[in-house]
Amino acid sequence: MKIAIFGASGATGQLLTERCLGAGYSVTALLRRPDNFAQRDRIRVVQGSAFDAAAVRETVEGSNVVLSVLGARSLKKEDVLEQAVPLIVAAMKQTGVRRIIALGSAGALPDSLKKQPTWRRWIVENIVYKTMLKWPVASQISQYATLSSSGLDWTMVMPPMLTNTPGRGVYRIDGEALPRNGSKISREDVADFMMSQIDSREWVGKGVYISY
Ligand SMILES: NC(=O)c1ccc[n+]([C@@H]2O[C@H](COP(=O)([O-])OP(=O)(O)OC[C@H]3O[C@@H](n4cnc5c(N)ncnc54)[C@H](OP(=O)(O)O)[C@@H]3O)[C@@H](O)[C@H]2O)c1
Predict the structure, then answer these.
(1) Are 183 and 161 in contact (CB under 8 A)?
(2) Which of 28, 30, 125, 160 is most buried as measured by Cβ atoms within 10 A of its Cβ?
(3) Which of 46, 103, 186, 190 should be mutated for ligand 1, with most atoms under 8 A from CB?
(4) For residue 163, how far is its CA from the centre of ligand 1 (angstroms)?
(5) Any idea which GO molecular function terms this record carries (predicted)?
(6) Listed residue (102, 98, 120, 75) closest to 158, CA to CA
(7) Ligand 1 near 105 CB (within 6 A)
(8) Domains of the chain, start order
(9) Position 12 confidence tier, pLDDT thresholds 50, 70, 90
(10) Atom of ligand 1 nearest to the CA of 33
């Protein structure tokens, strides 16, 4: 299995890379700064930015599955997903790669909070999403729109807050909305779930919520 990873140097990306290597997969990663990446000698590195169409295409070409755990390094307006995801989709179409599993967030869809208690839904919608997470949420809305109209075999994994705690191996999955009172999940469990989707068709063409 040949996997192309975008965002491999990030917090979730490092976990995902380690799992792919552990599974015996060949990994190609697009990295802005390969020298800082501990796993660089065990993978094929394409050096460059996800805003560079040629570098994105070189990363995708020849892979069976694309994993994206890209994101901005700050809460400011960086438009990482707005710029990169359309380039990834275009590169996949040009090179005939069909499957992409992308990390998104529960903020991507208006219905995501419909299973939450009213008070929690109000606070998240009216305060959290409109202030602190304004730009990350805008990016995730954009990512969802790009993937869902791509015609590719896409899955967008949509967690609430990510933590760096050890994975529990037990979590809730929901295709409709964030599970009731689901407020966090560890990056390790998210990485494990994304790995499980490489060989699964269950969530193709769908967004899927994941939380404790
Ligand atoms: N934090 C949360 O609680 C939370 C909750 C739900 C969803 N999410 C979403 O989950 C995703 C991943 O989060 P994370 O915390 O694992 O990520 P992260 O640690 O912030 O890492 C982001 C990754 O994206 C890469 N990247 C950004 N711009 C790039 C560019 N122009 N070219 C190439 N690579 C680029 C970074 O590369 P460099 O190493 O070169 O910077 C890094 O590998 C994000 O989309 C985030 O919005 C986060």
Answers:
(1) yes
(2) 30
(3) 103
(4) 13
(5) oxidoreductase activity, acting on the CH-NH group of donors, NAD or NADP as acceptor
(6) 102
(7) yes
(8) 2-211 (3.40.50.720)
(9) very high
(10) 40
- The string of pLDDT tens digits covering residues 117-128 is 999 999 999 999
Average pLDDT, the chain: 97
Q: Do residues 2 and 19 lie in contact, with contact meaning Cβ atoms separated by under 8 Å?
A: no
Which pLDDT score is estimated for 13?
98
Task: Give yes or no for a contact between 123 and 133, defined as CB atoms under 8 angstroms apart.
Answer: no
Token code pair at residue 181: 């009172």
Q: Identify the CA nearest to 85 among candidates 148, 12, 147.
A: 147
- Using alpha carbons, list the distances in angstroms from residue 88 to 48, 59, 71, 150, 152: 13, 9, 14, 10, 11
Which residue's CA is minimally distant from atom 7 of ligand 1? 105
Does residue 11 line the site of ligand 1, with CB under 6 A?
Answer: yes
Distance 73 CA to ligand 1 centre (A): 6
Res 177 pLDDT > 90: yes
Task: Tell whether the model's pLDDT for residue 110 goes beyond 90.
Answer: no
Asked if residues 207 and 140 have their Cβ atoms less than 8 Å apart, the reply is no
Residues 174, 154: Cα–Cα separation, whole Å: 16
Q: What is the pLDDT of residues 65-82, one digit of tens each?
A: 999 999 999 999 999 999
Report the separation in Å between the CA atom of 79 and the middle of ligand 1, taken as the mean of its atom positions: 12
Q: Give the global pTM.
A: 0.98
Beta-ladder partners of 158 = 209
Q: Give the residue whose CA is nearest to atom 46 of ligand 1.
A: 71
* Ligand 1 atom index nearest CA of 12: 16
